[in-house]
């Protein structure tokens, strides 16, 4: 049963990953990438890594890919322009692809993950909490690396914001603090006017 | 005969299917009558009567609406991507309903009692946005794509505030399991997490309103600006499915607020001997309390819609990023401090 589920999701993942690079439309490609993330999350669930699986869905599917799509939908991509040099560059691309595949194969090929290198991990019972285990390891054994990673991310956020933040003094924008602080007497003035009989004046024709 | 039925029920797949039906049928009925309640409540708030023609006092109105939508023609816009156009509402309803798998209705009444239930619900609501994005993009319509961009930005922004608000709950309960979170709030009404986590509670619910694109955050649909937003091209049953998903999500946000901040199925009078309730059902925990608490939040959704004018888009973004996220981060520190000081009755280390 488990193997069956594994193969179904693996097939989904590989097929959708293939579609990402073969499909014509960039928006569709992004959707296939979402599907492949989702399938890999399902495979992680089979590995009893439920925390990582759901974080993958929340972070990559729920946030990163939404922003990706956001950008891709706004871009006006001319596929003909991109495909122009496809045939000319094909031999080089194939060579690079084969080189990459071979190196990856030697590093993570069947041999290096075989049962002689790693022992098969034990199945845990239903009361096993992957979240608690992960939390304990992260905040005790790896606390420094965890905090360094957090600081690097923070630096990244600040750098990204400071790169995109442009002060444009000439543009008009609302100052929301002032809008919130406004009182009715700042905007509205009640003027007492004595009642007077109104004289009839015919409306003037507008001159052009 | 009874033995036969029981033995069929013992088959795991059948067992789970029956449980799913037992959750979904009342949920969909609630959705149907929630729309009726919405029209009635807003009607009375605006000194109107609301629907009163179909059946006694208009009680059959949601059935009539459903029939009308089912028999309407589905119109596909020209140059629309038909496959994605039909997948979009399916995705919206699938995620909206899938989230209910982990919602507990009592200490034993839960379909899937998983350890990461809270994260699972966050994940499901965050996938839900793809229904809207797909709908907007595949409709080949400018209004729909405008709405899609608005929704994508809004949902991603408010998800962060919502996630941080939940971090406070997780810190207090020391568990991601919703049943454990509810049990952590036992005691009287003072044991509920809404008191130590009051800012997070308020932020959670407001972010929930923004996540479900309801008034006053309904710029995704903004009738006066972009007609009907992402579902402007949808008709018939496909539109009805979007509608269903939106209401199922509203009820989900309400029940989650009740579970995480208001003690779920626990009675507010639990352990209060002064009232002399003894062992009566008012003092005991039951699903009635959970549903009553959920109804409060569902009513708030309707009340908001009748009361507040729609936010301006830049104000929505400002509220999410510059108000909610800083407040939640500060309050997470405060929760840590309360935890350190072992503030009774919420943070006693067990």
Describe what is shown at a glance:
Chain A is built from nine helices and no strands.
Unreliable parts of chain A: none
- What is the share of helical residues of chain A? 55-70%
Rg of chain A (C-alpha, Å): 31 Å
Distance between the termini of chain A: 84 Å
Which class do the helix and strand fractions of chain B yield? mainly alpha
Number of helices of chain B: 12
Strand content of chain A: under 5%
Overall geometric form of chain B: globular
**Measured distance between first and last alpha carbons of chain B:** 49 Å
Largest sheet of chain B: none
> Whole-number radius of gyration of chain B?
21 Å
Secondary-structure element sequence of chain A? HHHHHHHHH
Tell me the greatest interface.
Answer: A-B, 25 and 28 residues
The global form of chain A is elongated
Structural class computed from helices and strand pairing of chain A: mainly alpha
Structural commentary:
The complex is a heterodimer of chains A (208) and B (350). Chain A has helices at residues 2-22, 26-46, 50-74, 79-83, 86-108, 130-139, 143-164, 176-181, 184-187. Chain A is an all-alpha fold. Chain B is built from twelve helices and no strands. The radius of gyration of chain B is 21 Å and the shape is globular. The mean pLDDT of chain B is 84. The chains are: A mainly alpha (208), B mainly alpha (350).
């Amino acid at each position: 049963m488990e193997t069956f589920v594994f193969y179904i999701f693996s097939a989904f993942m590989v097929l959708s990953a293939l579609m990402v690079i073969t499909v014509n439309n960039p928006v569709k490609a992004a959707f296939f990438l979402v599907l492949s993330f989702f399938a890999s999350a399902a495979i992680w669930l089979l590995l009893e890594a439920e925390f990582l699986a759901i974080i993958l869905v929340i972070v990559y599917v729920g946030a990163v890919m939404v922003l990706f799509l956001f950008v891709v939908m706004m871009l006006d991509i001319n596929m003909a322009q991109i495909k122009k040099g496809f045939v000319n560059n094909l031999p080089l691309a194939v060579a690079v692809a084969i080189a990459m595949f071979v190196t990856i194969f030697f590093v993570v090929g069947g041999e290096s993950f075989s049962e002689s290198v790693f022992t098969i991990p034990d199945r845990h019972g239903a009361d096993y909490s992957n979240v608690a285990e992960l939390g304990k390891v992260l905040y005790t054994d790896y606390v420094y690396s965890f905090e360094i990673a957090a600081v690097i991310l923070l630096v990244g956020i600040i750098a990204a914001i400071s790169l995109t933040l442009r002060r444009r003094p000439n543009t008009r924008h609302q100052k929301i603090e002032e809008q919130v602080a406004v009182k009715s007497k700042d905007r509205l003035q009640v003027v007492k006017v004595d009642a007077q009989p109104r004289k009839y004046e015919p409306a003037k024709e507008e001159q052009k | 005969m009874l033995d036969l039925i029981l033995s069929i029920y013992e088959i795991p797949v059948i067992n789970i299917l029956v449980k799913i039906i037992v959750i979904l049928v009342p949920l969909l009925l609630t959705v149907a009558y929630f729309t009726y309640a919405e029209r009635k409540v807003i009607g009375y708030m605006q000194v109107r009567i609301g629907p009163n023609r179909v059946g006694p006092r208009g009680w059959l109105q949601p059935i009539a609406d459903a029939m009308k939508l089912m028999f309407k023609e589905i119109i596909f816009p020209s140059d629309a991507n038909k496959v994605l156009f039909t997948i979009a509402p399916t995705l919206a309803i699938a995620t909206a309903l899938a989230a209910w798998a982990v919602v507990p209705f009592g200490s034993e009444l839960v379909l899937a009692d998983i350890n990461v239930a809270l994260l699972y619900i966050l994940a499901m609501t965050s996938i839900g946005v793809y229904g809207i994005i797909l709908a907007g993009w595949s409709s080949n319509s400018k209004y729909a794509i405008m709405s899609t961009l608005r929704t994508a930005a809004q949902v991603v922004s408010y998800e962060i505030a919502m996630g941080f608000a939940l971090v406070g709950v997780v810190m207090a309960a020391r568990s991601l399991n919703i049943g454990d979170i509810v049990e952590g709030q036992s005691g009287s009404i003072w044991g509920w997490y809404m008191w130590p986590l009051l800012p997070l509670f308020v932020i959670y619910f407001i972010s929930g309103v923004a996540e479900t694109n309801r008034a006053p955050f309904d710029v995704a649909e903004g009738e006066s600006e972009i007609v009907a937003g992402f579902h402007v091209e949808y008709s018939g049953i496909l539109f009805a499915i979007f509608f269903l998903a939106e209401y199922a999500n509203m009820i989900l946000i309400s029940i989650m607020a009740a579970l995480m901040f208001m003690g779920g199925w626990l009675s507010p009078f639990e352990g209060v001997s002064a009232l002399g309730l003894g062992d009566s059902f008012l003092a005991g925990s039951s699903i009635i309390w959970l549903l009553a608490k959920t109804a409060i939040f569902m009513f708030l959704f309707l009340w908001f819609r009748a009361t507040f004018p729609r936010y301006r888009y830049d104000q929505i973004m400002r509220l999410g990023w510059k108000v909610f996220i800083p407040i939640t981060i500060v309050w997470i520190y405060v929760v840590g401090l309360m935890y350190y000081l072992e503030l009774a009755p919420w943070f006693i280390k067990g």
